[in-house]
């Protein structure tokens, strides 16, 4: 599942982070100008962008509120190592995680840490 392979067996029809996630999250590289990232965040449904390495590994999160006119670089406002989840996590596991960390969104990555998408709390039944 985490690598885009077909899902088989008794769990194939189960609702998971993969089936609930959205892929339209804003992303950026560490060397991009803050004003470009601000525009990208403003066009997205979330108030942040995820900073990615060249091979799409999540490095950190850049919040729109931290990208002020004086922001010199992405690294100066980067929140490193945001918590992530794997795509096979079930609804019950998502509900528990949302309750434990009081988040509105969870970042979904593959086992190597590459971005797959974002699960919104509002999309998880019972969360």
How would you describe the overall organization of this protein?
There is one protein chain. The protein has 127 residues and is of the alpha/beta class. 19% of the residues lie in helices and 23% in strands. It has 3 helices and 7 strands, in the order αβαββββαββ. The chain has helices at residues 17-20, 34-42, 91-101; strands at residues 26-28, 48-52, 58-63, 79-80, 84-85, 105-109, 115-120. A 4-stranded mixed β-sheet has the order 1-2-3-4, covered by helices on one side. It is elongated, with a radius of gyration of 15 Å.
* Helix/strand structural class: alpha/beta
Task: List segments where confidence is low: pLDDT < 50 over at least 5 consecutive residues.
Answer: none
Order of strands in the sheet with the most strands?
A: 1-2-3-4
Number of strands: 7
Overall geometry comes to elongated
Mean pLDDT: 88
Oligomeric composition of the shown chains: single chain
Outline the biggest β-sheet.
Answer: 4 strands, mixed
């Amino acid at each position: 599942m985490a690598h885009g392979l077909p899902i088989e067996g008794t769990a194939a029809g189960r609702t998971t982070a993969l089936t609930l996630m959205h892929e339209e999250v804003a992303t950026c590289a560490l060397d991009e100008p803050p004003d470009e990232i601000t525009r990208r965040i403003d066009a997205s449904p979330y108030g942040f962008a995820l900073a990615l390495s060249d091979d799409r590994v999540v490095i950190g999160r850049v919040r729109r509120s931290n990208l002020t006119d004086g922001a010199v670089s992405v690294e100066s406002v980067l929140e490193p190592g945001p918590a992530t989840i794997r795509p096979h996590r079930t609804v019950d596991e998502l509900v528990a995680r949302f309750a434990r960390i009081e988040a509105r969104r969870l970042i979904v990555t593959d086992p190597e840490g590459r971005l797959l998408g974002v699960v919104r709390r509002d999309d998880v039944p019972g969360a």
